[in-house]
Specification:
The complex is a heterodimer of chains A (about 80) and B (about 400). By secondary structure, chain A is of the alpha+beta class. Helix content of chain A is about 50%, strand content about 15%. A two-stranded antiparallel sheet of chain A has the order 1-2. In chain A, helix 2 runs antiparallel to helix 3. The chains are: A alpha+beta (about 80), B alpha/beta (about 400). Strand 1 of chain A pairs parallel with strand 7 of chain B, so a sheet runs across the interface.
């Protein structure tokens, strides 16, 4: 019963992670925090930065050309641009 | 067999025909200006057109200097000029001497009216503008799949931010069918998932070629598009209706691509800077706490309690001395003022007696006479009254026996 509750939290978007990271820096900079709280925020910040970096390292994006829509299905093909210029 | 002419011969013949016709050498023509350009030399080049024909025109600096207004695309004008043929490219054009405005051109008027109507509806309101995602995952590019614009957009998007997925939605960007095609493309976006930004546009062109982007249906399709739209109609100076409705207007397709994604290197740099800031902040916090701790540990109350107590005791003694001094001063003040009051009363008492009719008898030397034996007969004495004094001579001394 309990296990169902501890489902994985949905993945944060890059923007959300970046915004949280900025907020943490702000709090560490201005807040009069207890040492334990500072350490906890620091750890969270470092893992957010690591997460953001990993997002940037994801594979090259695809380029597709839409050919048409057939009911629910979307027909596409890879779209190449010639780089001869 | 009929006679065969060379191109030059035919062109020369036509040129002669046109240029010797007095009617064509001084003719008034009415139309709407398009493709207007003002050369740095001051010469004006433009096309006059109506529903079914167009005419190339030139107005040289000498003539254009006399113009009272700046001609613009879409303006309806009447011009006086002479027609001539330019053999090199086989084209004829009108050399304009005089130009008069004849009201605003109908296309331009239609544009202004639509702009005003949509603005009133609130379609251009800043509050409607959506913010672009910081890091889009998939971008729809609505444009011609064959033009330079689509290549520029894709190249710049991936150069700046290689991670982004791109879906090219092919649409017609000029001609009569373009508005319908653009609307269909825009409405398709709502049925596709995963897209978070759309770029709609085309490369530069004349006002007529961009006209699909001034279509009301296109404007409304942009407004109802479920994701933010960047307009990229390649015209630096003129705004199309699509530009006003879009969440962001880029002057060219390349600029649209640049505005749509961040530069990955900058992002990495930024993240790196944030990470080191985070570390520095923690170090600062730790240092602050350490200083606080060492301050507390070296406080005299902990290191030399007897001395700390002695200081406190001394402070108590000083306070007590201070208190005694103050009370003493206070008493002195009171005593002083009391004595003053008494002196005052004493000074006043003889005077009070005089008012009641008593008097004081004084000898010349000022001594008070209280016994008759103090004076002799004939001596001059003064009698002090409440008001003034009497100078008297003693007639007789009657001494009273003592006892």
């Amino acid at each position: 019963m309990k296990e169902a509750v501890t489902a994985q939290a949905p993945e944060k978007s890059f923007e959300e992670a970046l915004a949280r990271l900025e907020q943490i820096i702000e709090e560490l900079d201005h807040g009069e925090l207890k040492l334990e709280e500072s350490l906890r925020l620091f750890e969270e910040g470092v893992s957010l930065a690591r997460y953001c970096n990993s997002k940037l390292d994801e594979a090259q994006g695809r380029v597709e050309l839409l050919l048409g829509v057939d009911g629910e299905n979307i027909l596409t093909k890879d779209f190449c641009i010639d780089e001869e210029e | 067999m009929a006679e065969v002419y060379s191109v030059s011969q035919l062109t020369a013949y036509l040129k002669k025909l046109v240029e010797e016709d007095p009617h064509l050498q001084q003719i008034w023509v009415q139309g709407e200006i398009s493709n207007f350009t003002r050369h740095s030399s001051g010469h004006l080049y433009f096309t006059l057109k109506d529903e079914s024909a167009r005419l190339r025109c030139v107005m040289f600096r000498r003539e254009s200097q006399r113009l009272k207004f700046l001609p613009q695309d879409g303006m309806a004008v009447t011009v006086l000029g002479r027609l001539a043929i330019y053999p090199k490219n086989g084209e004829y054009q009108l050399y304009v001497a005089v130009m008069e405005a004849s009201g605003v051109g109908s296309l331009y008027l239609a544009y202004e009216q639509l702009k005003e109507r949509l603005a009133k509806e609130g379609l251009f309101d800043q509050a409607r503008k959506r913010r672009l995602p910081v890091l889009p995952r998939k971008i729809a590019v609505l444009t011609s799949p064959t033009g330079a614009a689509v290549r520029d957009i894709i190249r710049i998007l991936h150069r700046r931010y290689p991670r982004v997925d791109i879906l090219v939605i092919p649409v017609l960007v000029q001609g009569a069918a373009a508005p319908q095609s653009l609307v269909a493309g825009l409405d398709l976006i709502g049925r596709l998932s995963g897209l978070d930004l759309a770029i709609i546009g085309r490369g530069g062109g004349s006002i007529e070629e961009l006209w699909a982007f001034n279509d009301e249906h296109v404007a409304r399709a942009i407004a109802r598009c479920p994701i933010p739209v960047v307009s990229a109609v390649g015209h630096e100076t003129d705004f199309t209706i699509a530009d006003f409705v879009a969440d962001l207007r880029a002057p060219t397709p390349s600029a649209a691509a640049e505005l749509s994604v961040p530069e990955i290197d900058k992002l990495r740099e930024n993240l790196g800077a944030m990470e080191s800031r985070l570390k520095n902040l923690l170090l600062q916090i730790l240092e602050k706490k350490r200083i606080l701790l060492s301050k507390a540990a070296t406080h005299p109350v902990l290191t030399r309690p007897e001395r700390w107590l002695a200081i406190r005791r001394q402070q108590v003694d000083l306070a007590r001395e201070e208190m005694v001094n103050r009370i003493r001063n206070r008493l002195e003040e009171k005593k002083h003022s009391l004595l003053k009051q008494i002196a005052k009363l004493e000074a006043l008492s003889p005077l009070a007696t005089l008012t009641r009719g008593y008097s004081i008898c004084l000898r010349k030397d000022g001594s008070v006479v209280s016994r008759a034996g103090q004076v002799r007969t004939g001596e001059e004495i003064n009698i002090l009254l409440h008001r003034g004094e009497l100078c008297c001579a003693v007639l007789k001394v009657k001494e009273e026996r003592e006892g």
